[in-house]
From TrEMBL:
Species name: Streptomyces cupreus
Identification of the protein by name: SulP family inorganic anion transporter
InterPro entries, alphabetized: SLC26A/SulP_dom (IPR011547), SLC26A/SulP_fam (IPR001902)
Residue spans crossing the bilayer: 12-30, 37-59, 79-99, 111-131, 158-178, 190-209, 274-297, 318-348, 368-395
Localization in the cell: Membrane
One Gene Ontology biological process: transmembrane transport
Record PANTHER family: SULFATE TRANSPORTER (PTHR11814)
Length: 484
C-alpha cells in the first residue's frame, strides 16, 4: 500500500462506500436474496479482489447487470444452489485467466455486450416497477413488460401501492436532479442521498411501504452443501454457470477498458484482472453470496474522488464490513420502493439510447445486432439471447470478410474478360454465379482470379463447374481461362 497517496485514497474510499452501500442492498433485494448477501459480495470485492493485481482503480461488487440472471437462478434452482453456481463461475474465470483468455474478451462484439446490457436493463426496469408498487412480478421478461399496464391500473386502487409508487418516483426524481445541484451538495453520492431522503420521508409520514428484511450478516451466509455439488452436472445449472461467467467476465473487462480511459495511471492487465474476479467469485461462492463483477458506477466514483492506488477499494470493503457488523439494523428502515427506484435508474443507464442512434447512422449492422440481442434476452432468456447476439456478430463478420468485386469487360470483339478480386467465399457465391451466368454462352470468357486473396473450396468447385457448363454449352470457340 502506497502511503504517499493515503489521504486521497482514504477520502475516495468513503465516497465509494457511500455509493456502494445502497447499490449492494438494492441488487440483493432485487435478486431475491437477503440484503446482507449483497454487502458480503461488496466486502469480498473490496478486501479480496481489491488487493489483487489487474486493474488498480476498478471497484468490484454485486452488479445490476447480473440481477435478472441471479433472480432466475435462485427462482429455478433455489438459494442454496447460488453458492455452487458462483463458485463454479469463479473457478472458470480463474482457469480462463490462467490460460490468458482475458485479452480475448476484448474481441467480443461491443454491439453484443451493449445489447446484453440493454436487455438486462429492460427486464430490470420492468421487474423493479412491480417492486415499486408492491406487486408480484411475472417470471418471464416479456410477461413483465406486457403486464405493466394492468399492474399500474390495479395499483391505482390501492392506497399502499400508490404511496409506494409515489415514494419510488420521488426517489428517481432525486437521482435525476442530483447531478444538477451545486458541487458542495453533490459531495454526498446521489444513490445514498436518494435512499436516505426516501427513508426519512417514509418514517416521517408513516407511509405503508415494505422495508428491507434484516436477518443478520452471519445467518445470511449459506455455504454450498455436498448435495448442491451433486447438481452441478444438471444442464440447467451448467448453462447458468456459463451465462454468469460470460456476462460477469465481459462486464468486468469492458469496465476495465472504460476505467483506463478515466485516469493516466497503470493500465489494466486483462488476464490478471480476470483471475482477480475469479478469486473474488470463488470466495463469494464459498460464502453463498451474490456473484461479483467490476462495476463502472463505483469505479468511476473512485477515480473521480481522487483515488490513486488500490488502497481506496480495499478500504471501501472495510467500511462495508464495519457497517454490516455495527449497524445491520439500519438496513431494516430502508423502504424497498426506494431501492427499486435506484435500480430502475441504473437500468436506464444500461440502455444506450444515444449510442444506438449514432450506431444506426454509422453501422446499421451493429445496431441490428444490439437490438436483436436485447429483444431476444427479453423475449426468450439471458443465455439464449447472448448466444443469438454472438451468432449474429459472427455471421456479420463473415459476410463483411467475404467482400468480393466482379468486374466484367466486354469490348464486343474477342473474349469477355471477368476480373474477380477480394475474398471469394460461399457467402457471396450466388452473386458471383448470377453475374457469370448472365454472360452469353456463345462467347469465350477469360476469368481472372489473380486478385483474389482467398478462394474457399465451395467457390473454387462452383467456378470450375460453371466453366465446364459454359464451355460445353457454347461453340468450340467458347473457352474459359481461369488465371490465378
Amino acid at each position: 500500500m502506497n502511503t504517499a497517496y493515503f489521504k486521497q485514497d482514504f477520502a475516495a474510499s468513503v465516497v465509494v462506500f457511500l455509493v456502494a452501500l445502497p447499490l449492494c442492498v438494492g441488487v440483493a433485494v432485487a435478486s431475491g436474496v437477503p440484503a446482507e448477501l449483497g454487502i458480503v459480495t461488496g466486502i469480498v470485492g473490496g478486501l479480496v479482489t481489491g488487493m489483487l493485481p489487474g486493474s488498480s482503480l476498478q471497484v468490484s461488487g454485486p452488479a445490476a447487470g447480473l440481477t435478472v440472471l441471479v433472480f432466475e437462478a435462485v427462482h429455478e434452482h433455489g438459494l442454496p444452489m447460488l453458492g455452487v453456481i458462483v463458485l463454479a463461475t469463479g473457478l472458470l474465470q480463474l482457469g480462463m485467466g490462467a490460460l490468458r483468455w482475458g485479452r480475448w474478451f476484448r474481441a467480443i462484439s461491443v454491439a453484443v455486450v451493449e445489447g446484453m446490457l440493454a436487455g438486462i436493463g429492460l427486464v430490470l426496469i420492468a421487474g423493479q416497477l412491480y417492486a415499486m408498487t408492491q406487486s408480484t412480478a411475472p417470471s418471464s421478461g416479456i410477461d413483465k413488460i406486457a403486464g405493466l399496464p394492468r399492474m399500474f391500473a390495479d395499483s391505482l386502487g390501492s392506497a399502499p401501492a400508490v404511496a409506494s409508487l409515489l415514494l419510488g418516483v420521488g426517489t428517481i426524481a432525486v437521482l435525476v436532479l442530483w447531478p444538477k445541484l451545486p458541487k458542495r451538495v453533490r459531495l454526498v453520492p446521489g444513490p445514498l442521498a436518494a435512499v436516505a431522503l426516501a427513508t426519512v420521508a417514509s418514517l416521517a409520514f408513516a407511509l405503508p411501504v415494505t422495508k428491507v428484511t434484516v436477518h443478520g450478516l452471519v445467518s445470511a451466509i449459506q455455504p454450498p452443501t455436498p448435495s448442491g455439488f451433486a447438481e452441478v452436472a444438471d444442464i440447467g445449472v451448467v448453462t447458468t454457470v456459463l451465462a454468469f461467467t460470460l456476462i460477469a467476465s465481459a462486464e468486468s473487462l469492458f469496465s476495465a477498458a472504460a476505467v483506463d480511459r478515466l485516469h493516466d495511471g497503470p493500465r489494466t492487465d486483462y488476464d490478471k484482472e480476470l483471475m482477480a474476479q475469479g478469486v473474488g467469485n470463488t470466495v463469494c461462492g464459498l460464502l453463498g453470496a451474490l456473484p461479483m463483477t467490476a462495476v463502472i458506477v463505483r469505479s468511476a466514483a473512485n477515480v473521480q474522488a481522487g483515488a490513486r492506488t488500490r488502497a481506496s477499494r480495499i478500504l471501501h470493503g472495510a467500511w462495508l464490513l464495519l457497517f454490516a457488523a455495527l449497524l445491520p439494523a439500519a438496513l431494516g428502515v430502508i423502504p424497498i420502493p426506494a431501492l427499486a427506484a435506484v435500480l430502475i435508474h441504473s437500468g436506464f443507464k444500461l440502455i444506450p439510447v444515444k449510442g444506438l442512434l449514432a450506431l444506426w447512422r454509422g453501422h446499421r449492422g451493429e445496431a441490428v445486432i444490439l437490438v436483436v440481442t436485447a429483444v431476444s434476452i427479453v423475449a426468450i432468456s439471458m443465455f439464449e439471447g447472448v448466444l443469438i447476439g454472438l451468432a449474429l456478430a459472427v455471421v456479420k463478420s463473415a459476410w463483411e470478410a467475404s467482400h468480393i468485386k466482379l468486374e466484367i469487360v466486354d469490348k464486343g470483339a474477342g473474349p469477355v474478360q471477368a476480373h474477380l478480386s477480394g475474398n471469394a467465399t460461399f457467402l457471396r457465391l450466388p452473386k458471383i454465379l448470377d453475374a457469370l451466368e448472365a454472360i452469353p454462352q456463345d462467347r469465350p470468357v477469360e476469368l481472372d482470379l489473380s486478385r483474389v486473396h482467398h478462394l474457399d473450396h465451395a467457390c473454387r468447385t462452383a467456378l470450375e463447374n460453371w466453366a465446364e457448363r459454359h464451355d460445353a454449352a457454347g461453340s468450340s470457340s467458347a473457352r474459359v481461362t481461369m488465371a490465378v
